[in-house]
């Protein structure tokens, strides 16, 4: 009987330990659910805030656009840029400094994603030899997040054209180079004020610095725009997509696409669906652990009863 009593005490201790483990596992699962919910909500907020679709009603290219309403809300909205087939489809802002729109949206709301904005030293009519547009490199491909994709030759060749709207008129954009530069370099800033005798040399430097180039006959008589964003490859790295501004506009072939890719469709799934699926997975894991513990407990009880029966015999 002493052996049976000892066995009962051991099994009772095991039962208590299992209960503690169950409570701990349950607490961890609840914590994971809460953290996951927070993370998914935060990611979803960034995705929604950065999606060009939220500005679609203001787009001057569409019939239902209310571009003037956005300008009335924020007079520092000076235009619109769209690189065809990319997520770059946003209003352009310009302040009297290059800090404001790092953290404010075109609707003057605080935003981690900021805005696409023109260098404060540039003329708002894009009449400078070189105009610089800044935008954050955001995931997934928000703001200027697509600029880095131009480092791939196939992507570059498939997304050569765009549209830039300013002064009440649409203009074409032709990408001709993508290059990387140090964030502390004064090279791109000097382009804004390039004297006539230096423009040819600056164009040559752009082509020399570029990872991919395209010969479209850019000259010192043209107006160019640099899409400037941070690089993930280096601490102070910057990536710049060079485009020529033209009076001729280009047809957007991507507007004819009727269906999104599989990844785009996944991104359109509401955030609550992902949260619900995650919750189901965690609950399934918890249920499996509980069933396993319950089975082990019943086996222990049967073992004790068997031992007691043997002792009585």
Strand content: 15-25%
Structural class: alpha+beta
Please name the CATH architecture of the largest domain.
Beta Barrel
Quickly count the helices. 7
Mean pLDDT: 81
According to CATH, the fold-level topology of the largest domain is Sortase, Chain: A
Which sequence of SSEs, written as H and E, runs from N to C? HHEEEEEEHEEHHEEEHH
Domain unit count: 2
Give the strand order of the largest sheet, numbering strands 1, 2, ... along the chain: 1-2-3-4-10-11-8-7
Structure characterization notes:
There is one protein chain. The chain is α+β, with helices and mostly antiparallel strands and 313 residues long. It folds into two domains: 2-47 and 268-312; 60-257, Sortase (Sortase, Chain: A). The protein contains seven helices and eleven strands. It has helices at residues 2-50, 67-73, 153-158, 187-192, 196-209, 262-267, 271-312; strands spanning 77-83, 89-93, 116-118, 130-134, 137-138, 142-143, 161-166, 169-182, 210-213, 223-230, 237-246. The strands form two sheets. An eight-stranded mixed beta barrel has the order 1-2-3-4-10-11-8-7. A two-stranded antiparallel sheet has the order 5-6. A hairpin with a 2-residue loop joins β7 (161-166) and β8.
Keywords:
313 residues, alpha+beta, Sortase, Chain: A
Q: Can you describe this structure in just a few lines?
A:
The chain has 313 residues and is an alpha+beta fold. Helices cover 42% and strands 21% of the residues. It is elongated.
């Amino acid at each position: 009987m002493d052996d049976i009593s000892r066995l009962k005490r051991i099994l009772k201790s095991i039962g208590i330990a299992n209960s503690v483990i169950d409570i701990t596992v349950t607490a961890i699962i609840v914590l994971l659910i809460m953290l996951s919910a927070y993370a998914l909500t935060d990611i979803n907020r960034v995705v929604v805030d950065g999606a060009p679709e939220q500005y679609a009603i203001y787009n001057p290219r569409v019939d239902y656009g209310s571009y003037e309403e956005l300008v009335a809300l924020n007079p520092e909205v000076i235009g619109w840029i769209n690189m065809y087939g990319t997520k770059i489809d946003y209003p352009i802002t310009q302040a009297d400094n290059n800090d404001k729109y790092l953290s404010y949206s075109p609707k003057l709301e605080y935003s981690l994603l900021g805005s696409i904005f023109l260098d404060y030293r540039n003329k708002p009519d894009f009449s400078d030899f070189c105009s610089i547009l800044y935008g954050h490199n955001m995931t997934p491909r928000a703001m200027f997040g697509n600029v880095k994709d131009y480092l791939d030759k196939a992507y570059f060749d498939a997304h050569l054209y765009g549209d830039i709207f300013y002064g009440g008129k649409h203009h074409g954009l032709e990408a001709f180079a993508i290059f990387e530069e140090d964030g502390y370099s004064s090279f791109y800033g000097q382009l804004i004020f390039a004297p006539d005798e230096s423009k040819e040399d600056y164009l040559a430097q752009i082509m020399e610095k570029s990872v991919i180039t395209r010969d479209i006959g850019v000259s010192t008589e043209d107006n160019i725009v640099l899409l400037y964003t941070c690089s993930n490859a280096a601490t102070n790295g910057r990536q710049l997509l060079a485009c020529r501004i033209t009076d001729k506009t280009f047809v957007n072939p991507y507007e004819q696409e009727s269906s999104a890719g599989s990844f785009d469709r996944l991104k359109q799934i509401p955030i609550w669906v992902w949260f619900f699926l995650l919750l189901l997975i965690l609950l399934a894991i918890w249920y499996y652990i509980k069933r396993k513990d319950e089975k082990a407990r019943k086996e222990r009880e049967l073992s004790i009863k068997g031992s007691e029966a043997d002792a009585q015999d």
